[in-house]
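Figure 2 data, in text form.
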Amino acid sequence: MGVEAIRVVILSFSAIFLVIVFATKTHPCLTQYCKSVLWVTVIALLYNLVCRGYPLWYHPRWWLMTDKFSQLVQIFVLLPCTTLLFLRNMPRRRMAKIIYGLCFLAVYGIYEALLCATHEIIYCHGWSFGWSLLLDACMFFIMWLHNENWRISVGLSGLIMSLFLAWFHVPWDT
């Protein structure tokens, strides 16, 4: 199997998550979780705006898949589907919630590992696989928190984003 045959991780994961959303009949829950889906989307778009000249990671061009197209597929397909599935099936008990979140984090870890293995992602400016896992853990926590208390999640999101931007010395004038 050539590199070209396996360099479709982003499209594959996005398609799988989309199929799962429809197969589990989760899509009608979009109205219930719309605010959280939109918040996750806004955060991802904000990353693309703030880091447009100083990316912490990027997706190399492959056929019709440019970095921007890859980002848009993730922002408008993968992340909304992930948010819907994550929130709709959230258990009630605290320990079950933690295990559930770790399972989603493991799936995203596998996704990131596949991106690395197929060279569909390039890390820059000190970013690494470990930082991606930390960011994913923050993302799942913010998803849950936004569904529980959106005011606190907005403030915490701002703090987390500020810390990441400061740690990686992202310039404001890019």
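Caption note: The mean pLDDT is 92.
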